[in-house]
Backbone:
DNA sequence: GGGACCTTAGCACGACCGTGTCAAGGTTCC
DNA sequence: GGAACCTTGACACGGTCGTGCTAAGGTCCC
């Protein structure tokens, strides 16, 4: 009855494209936490494998890292955090009595700088 | 009348507790972007000052950094990102047919490891 | 009982975060 | 016209992220 479909780290790594090291790291981040065998071996089942593959797609599709997804997870598990962050972002982003679509433009520009900087691929390094 | 209440970086720094350097950094992150004088000077008005103070509280209250707030901002400005991330987090987080409140506990434990690691304040450093 | 797996812990390393500081040049204003 | 601001740009440095690798030890299974 198909209870045999639990892969070990190495096997899971092979079928998902992640390295065993990364699988453990991802677990640490709380993103994909497989159950364990009585002796402590990680047991990757179909759900985990699926999740690992979609995670891979997610990171590839957008410019995000594991830490960011981890933060998103925190946002939906720590109610206070979400409330405060969302509150801050909502409040006064641009004052309603001072937005002549000119400041707004400048704001857009600034925020479009891929998170922080990346002003020019300057050959400094 | 009262249009004179635009502070310069240094003044804003003094009244908000941030350093001028940080004010520029925060602007770069798109979190607080003050308007500019014709000659390019940053003009911090009451709204910006308020925002800077609350930002400070926000960072102090929870264990988050500017990058994380910046990411939250991206989540609410880049629709595709939010959709995908939220989708991933919602999907299969723990399979509905496999959650005997035992795995759940283990899951809780994992996620409670403050984002990544911090396993023990081991006196390594 | 021995080889092939697994576990955790640690070092290493480049890239970025959060900060400070310094340099070179423009503004303000007396 | 000079002092005291401002601007951007850069170097620096400890900290974390993402990743690999190695070491010391348990487990599986033939």
Residues:
């Amino acid at each position: 009855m198909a209870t045999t479909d639990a892969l070990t780290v190495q096997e899971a790594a092979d079928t998902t494209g992640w390295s065993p090291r990364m699988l453990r790291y991802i677990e640490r981040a709380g993103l994909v936490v497989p159950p364990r065998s009585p002796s402590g071996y990680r047991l990757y089942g179909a759900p985990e494998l699926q999740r690992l593959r979609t995670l891979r797609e997610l990171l590839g599709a957008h410019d995000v890292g594991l830490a960011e997804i981890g933060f998103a997870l925190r946002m939906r598990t720590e109610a206070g955090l979400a409330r405060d962050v969302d509150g801050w972002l909502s409040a006064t982003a641009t004052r309603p009595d001072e937005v002549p679509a000119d400041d707004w433009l400048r704001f857009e520009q600034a925020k479009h700088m891929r998170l922080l900087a990346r002003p020019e691929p300057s050959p400094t390094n």
